[in-house]
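Review form for a predicted model. The reviewer records the input and the model, then writes brief findings.
Reviewer: anonymous (R2)
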Amino acid sequence: MNELSESKRFAAIGEERDQGSACWWRGRWFLVLIALVSVLLEGMLVARTPQGLTFDPAPQILALRQYRAGQSPSPNHVMVADPQDLSRDQAQWISVRPPGTQLLVWPFLALGANIGEAVRGVVLLCLLAGGVGWALWFGLFQLPARLLLPTVFLLPWMRYAGNNLIWYQTELLLFAIAPWLLLGGWGVVNLPGASRRRWLLAVTLGFGCGLAYIFKSSGAFLVAGILAYLLTLAFVERLAASRRSARRLFPSDPAGKGAGEGGVGDNADPASTHTLLPFAMLTALASLPLFLAWSILNHKASGHVSTFDQYMAARGLTWPTVIHLLGYPALAMGSAGEMLKFLLLNQYHKVLYGHPYGAEWVSLLGIPGSLFLYASLPRRDTWRGAGGLAATVLVITLLGLAVVWSHADIGYEVRYVTVSALALTPVLLQVGWRIWRRESTRRATRAILVFCGMLYLWGALGYGVISLVGKVVTIPAGYQTGVSGTYNPFLASAAFPRDIVREVSAGFDPTHDLWVVATPNAVLDLPGRGLIISDWESTSDLRQLHFATSRSLTLHALIAKEDEANDKGPAIRSAFTGVVRWEHIPLAGSLSDLWLGVMPATHP
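Model under review:
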């Protein structure tokens, strides 16, 4: 009897919290305060550490700087040396990534900040928005303080988010906007009637969905899940309302007393039982303008609508795809995938480093946790309240990734699942907590719950804290950045880029010379023009490159020291036709060495 009463009490409180009652509103400001304190501590930790950029957003930042200097036709065109004639530049449209980074960094640059300061400002704003948003989302669910409060505090530190304070990547933009879209979707469902506030929220939500795609193209999975939930729920309600109306016209009892004696049909207001449909349709329509605008602009400039059609390849539903889809949800919730990759795939640990299926082994370790997730999906309490929205988003994301990975040559990345898995995390915690509280639950079951929680969530979140602290400690104190103001180990990690730039630029003539670098990050601190040859390519692919010029050029090639051992360095240098001799200048404080070569004109 006590167990039954406890279960009923939990269910009642859970339903009250799911419906956005006073239980949640009383605690929201405390959760917001926890998130703000967490981000403040992160900001204080990295205050003296320079901001870095990953490879992906660096061309976007470079394009914006060139546009502001009048060198590029738009903030989304990056100017690089033309491979057919290295003596001139060509404008390359950035088609694989939407321009969210440029749009957010631009105001900071306009206020006089350097690139490093501007990116750090964007990162802090995103962490604040995401930390507060996820705190409010988790607050919608019935969770005890021992689970809710530490999770809310640690979320901004998860490696997916906190690592951006050292290495910015565009996934952070989705971390910031995703919880607000989820809260908006749940608000559209719960606001009563056809109030002006509900109309405004539906339009705002639609605009936010379009903005998510402008920020990060993988946000399309999140948006599709939210819209699918709203439209499905709206049509289900419409169908239920139609059945009620039919019962009113054709009562089941012969005397026709069903409606007249307080039946469902008599008490239900047909005008209020299916009002979600116009709001769901309005949200979907309001999301289209930004989707279409970027798709049309991208197609006009590059011939491609998105990354998907640009890398179209019918590779089918392979076994690695299935393994990643099974394991990624658990690995994404607290960035456990990044923790396991560090432990198993790091070159210094020698566990699975270099193994051809190392990533698949990591995903296999996520399957035990994902099994609990998949087993929870059929449960009725998983779909109760906001849990239904979260479950729909994750299911749509996994289905979308199955299609993408089967039809396009896009890498397997756990980050594509992260915000969708985060959305469902409080639901799983709620289900797990209810199982834990049952007196009939066995010790083995409770041990499994603790193991999964520590490995996939709180242990992974703790790794995010350790990882961020470790990076701050590793970067030398007093690190002197170059003109970009960014941490740039592509030029120097332990030394000072300002000194390296001064050394390598001593004989550089911006009007006649050309830089050859492996990453756009290096160009951010170097004067003059540049040609980017990624050393991520295989040696055989690099040997297929051939460059030409209509006038003589002096080449200043910064080639990584390790590329000399794997023959990539000689392959890169051989791509420049006519260079008789390369002068090797070792750089003691850099990961690269300088190679100078004179390339004669190969055609008029």
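Findings: The chain has 26 helices and ten strands.
Further findings: Residues 1-26, 252-273 have pLDDT under 50 and may be disordered.
Recommendation: see findings above.
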